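fyi for ur records
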Amino acid sequence: MNDAQLNDAIAARPHPKVTKEGIEKRVTKVDYMVLPNSTVTICNLTLENGFSVRGEAACVDPRNFDLVIGQQLAHRDAFSKVWQLEGYLLAERRWMESK
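which gave:
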């Protein structure tokens, strides 16, 4: 299954799930910074409730540093952390509704 087929198969599932689109709607602000004298890029995602999640990326050899690549990788890292949190919230809601 390629990525598109996998995404379609997941989207076809009828039960509640965390989605990329759902997470994107909750992100209200994205900030980036590069730590001084380093190749470390940090992405801070601020969610609609004010909570923030950070992701980071770095390269070993400074000659390989590219700001755009660093930002994209740091964003991906932060986004995956939000995905886990949203999964927890969905599981908690389902559990509370079952009581």
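DSSP finds three helices and three strands in the chain. thats all i got for now
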